[in-house]
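[audit] Reproducing an earlier prediction to check determinism. Same input, same settings, fresh worker. If the tokens differ from the archived copy the diff job will pick it up downstream; this log only records the rerun itself.
[audit] input (537 residues):
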Amino acid sequence: MAVRPDTIHTNASGNGASGGLLESYSPTTGDPVGSVPTITPEQVQAVVDDVATVQPLWAQLSLADRARYLRRAAQVLLDHSDEIAELISREQGKPRLESYTMEIVPTIDALHWCATHGPRILADERIPHPQLLLKQKKSKFVYEPIGVVGVIAPWNYPWSIPFGEVAIALMAGNGVVLKPASLTPLIGERIQDVFERAGFPEGLVQAVHGGGAVGQALVESSAGKIFFTGSVEVGRRVGEECARRMKGCVLELGGKDPQIVCADANLPHAISGAVWGGFSNAGQTCSGIERTYVVAEVADRFIDGVIRETSRLRFGDPLDWKTEIGPMVSKEQFDLVMELVDDAVESGATVRCGGPTQPDGLSGHFIAPIVLTDVTHDMRIMREEIFGPVLPIVTVAGEEEAIALANDSQFGLGASVWTRDREKGERIARRIQSGMVWINDHSYSHGACQCSWGGVKESGLGRSHSKFGFYECVNIKLVSWEPSRMRDAWWHPYDEVLGKAIRSSARIIYGRDSQRTEGLREGALPLVRVVRRSLRR
């Protein structure tokens, strides 16, 4: 699958095999942005051990105290948001405005959401016992930290994806070892810096660099849980390694998100949604729109509108506030995208607008957003993740065909349905095989931490964000209290009296009316005798 270079198997320049420096370069100009020190794979376990020595002190804090630290981190992030946004645009190539809307602001909000709702979600949870035989017992769920959580981050959203996972892990009482993508190491360093500036215990959050081998070493370390974002191929290996070590992992492995445009859709809204969903972050979005299925009745108007709006997008220097499309993150990613486009054209697809371009004064690899028509489902571009600014549009006879084609994919991350009829939209949403479906919008919920994030099929396992993200970061323990006033009725000694009492109890509690009457008649005496026996000391 042609997708993101994965952290766990990326050999960037200065890949750290000898513990040297990892250089970072601007995808816009090719100029150096900075460098970070690397470690060797053999040193990773020592870092995990170091975090593990700090984590118990952090875990002893109350949930309210942890929440206060997260709010302090939010303020630090807000105070430094301008310089961090500029770093994201320089190192990753995302337009400056998107650095705020897709990276900075959502993580500030995520910190506040975790701080506000984390104490309630992670508090001990009482479990009712409606069963008559268990009325004297008291039970609760206790959410205990795992210990050290490993986060292996991608380069496409190098701030918001790992930051949200780190924040949730910390709120749950864990320490974190973060492995940033080798294409965006400086951004990873700033994540650690935010928490240090906020006064978190020194060494509780540590970033490690060094290419794919270091990511692999983190997976194989004693870290109790791994969050990985990347390709199916590498994610499967991460899952296998975690399974061998009897520990959990959350895998977000990309997508091939469909957009279904119904005949009754608000077309101007659906057109704008297609352009933003397909081309934001230069299409380098795991939940971006990569396939559009539009009902024939409105197809011509929709396609004309998408071409018109796409042609207006401005590409260039991501530091310019007016830029809407930045460079591809690397030459390799540019080549992967154009290989899929060229294959589609050779197979009969038509390029309606866009293509490789070169803004004046910039040496990066740019693609003006491409709209494709005359595509068929057997083309590679409809089966493989594009991860670039390309939107293939397919005209379908009706909604049933659109649903069938939307589900005809190995991926199942997100999807969107565009219709004015909410009831119909929700019916279609329930039939789409994906972890998320947005009606008349696309992908926005990654910026709303209360919403779960994750997919089905080869898009991954587990969920980040939301209460389910918290549950991924804890060991769920049952704690039960028995007041010790009487023995359980089902304890030894076994005899016929106990057997009749248990059988009659089942009929009285769960049976039909006639069975309840029979149970009372046959079981009254055995039940009394068992109760008396249980009360004896």
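[audit] rerun output stored. Observation attached for the diff report: Residues 173 and 340 are 44 Å apart (CA to CA).
[audit] end
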